[in-house]
Amino acid sequence: MSEAHPLSRRARLLLGGLALLLAGGITARLLAGGPGGDADDAPPAPPEATLAKGPDGRPALQLARGQAEALDLQVAPAREAPAADRLILHGVVLDPLPLLELEARHRSAEAALRAARSGEAAALAELARVRSLHAADRGASDRALQEAEGAAAAASAQRQGAEGEARKAQAAWTQYGLRDTLGLADFRRVVVRLDLPLGQPAPSPLPRSLSATAPGLAGPLALAVVGLAPGGSPLTGGLALLALAPGAGLRPGLPVDATLAAQPATHVLVPRTSLLWSDGQARVFVEVGPGRFEPRAVAVAFSLDESVALAGGLKKDEPVVLRGALALQGEYARLAEGTAIGAGGV
Predict the structure, then answer these.
(1) What's the mean pLDDT when you consider all of the chain?
(2) What gap in Å lies between CA 319 and CA 73, rounded to an integer?
(3) Which pairs from 111-115 meet CB under 8 Å and 24+ separation?
(4) Mean pLDDT of 14-34
(5) The 3-state secondary structure of the chain, one letter per residue
(6) What segment(s) does the record annotate as region Disordered (predicted)?
(7) pLDDT by residue (tens digit) across 50-109?
């Protein structure tokens, strides 16, 4: 066997240079895009949403391709609320004690005002008598005149204060629309509050009577409507009606249901998930073009179980966002602040 001859110096230099070239190429590939890739193989940047103008010139959110799917948007034409020929109002029998106290306060304030007016008239009459005696120098001293003037001023101030209290007491009492509280203390009569749904306007004109039902009563209950309840409904946040009813079988806290003829009105119905609130204003997102969504201010008429009836701002059959409105609002707000939003949203 012949011995292997060692490589020449020139061959070794060539092999070393080739190794360096190969190592540099591998490093460049790693830096450009990972093993076995280059810059062309890197994933493209996600598309971004932009702000554009809607048909009316107002800003609208223009989504990039694929963003609607990424945000899981659901859009459908707004539908008209079904017309109802009647409205069921849920109510309750009120505790008569606050009403009895209001009437007692009103009567007390009226009595105090009558006494104050009488006292003022007496003080003014006495002042006139003392002035006459003082002017004729017939035994009325300067001190007596000053005392009479002070008494008259105090009586006038008392009368003015009594008038203010009487006005407040009368306003607090008359807002309930009751003439008196006869029969309330012994439950021969009761006062019923009937709650209207939030946003439901007061019937015009107010009905004079309503038919109602209550647990434990065999037949219908006749209610005499006296007006709107001051402060509205603490349960729905909307308006409420006040009515008087015979007290047989009724006690405070008992639920009462009444039937009210519905007023003809056209409302657009959207799910609660469509509705967004900002600074006290309700809004929905309307699709005004392919992938283009405009925030629209709307007026809420009243709320149902899972839907909201709108009285303005949206028309029937306009494409409204049913699901994903909150994600759109986040995208819109960030773009309005100058921050680009990626396709995935936040």
Answers:
(1) 83
(2) 12
(3) 112/162, 112/165, 112/166, 113/159, 113/162, 113/163, 113/165, 113/166, 115/162
(4) 53
(5) CCCCCCCCHHHHHHHHHHHHHHHHHHHHHHHHHCCCCCHHHCCCCCCECEEEECCCCCEEEECCCCHHHHCCCEEEECEECCCCCEEEEEEEECCCHHHHHHHHHHHHHHHHHHHHHHHHHHHHHHHHHHHHHHHCCCCCCHHHHHHHHHHHHHHHHHHHHHHHHHHHHHHHHHCCCCCCCCCCCCCCEEEEEEECCCCCCCCCCCCCEEEEECCCCCCCEEEEEEEECCCCCCCCCCCEEEEEEECCCCCCCCEEEEEEECCCCCCEEEEHHHCEEECCEEEEEEEEECCEEEEEEEEEEEECCCEEEEEECCCCCCEEEEECHHHHHHHHHHHHCCCCCECCCC
(6) 35-58
(7) 888 877 788 899 998 888 888 889 999 988 876 655 778 999 999 999 999 999 999 999
Name residues whose C-beta falls within 8 Å of residue 286's C-beta, 6 or more positions apart in sequence. Answer: 293, 294, 296, 314, 318, 319, 320, 321
Which pair of structure tokens corresponds to residue 106? Answer: 């009103």
Whether the Cβ atoms of residue 277 and residue 326 lie closer than 8 Å to each other: no
Residue 70 tokens read as 């990424």
pLDDT in tens, 111-155: 999 999 999 999 999 999 999 998 887 777 889 899 999 999 999
For residue 40, pLDDT beyond 60: no
- Which CATH code of 3.90.1150.10, 2.40.420.20, 1.20.120.530, 3.40.50.10950 fits the domain covering 50-83+266-336? 2.40.420.20
Give the Cα separation of 47 and 28 in Å (integer): 28
Q: Phi first, then psi: what are they for 215, rounded to 5°?
A: -60, 135
Q: 87-95+186-261 belongs to which CATH class?
A: mainly beta
Q: Cβ distance 202 to 228 under 8 Å?
A: yes
Amino acid at 21: L
Residue 308 to residue 273: CA distance in whole angstroms:
9
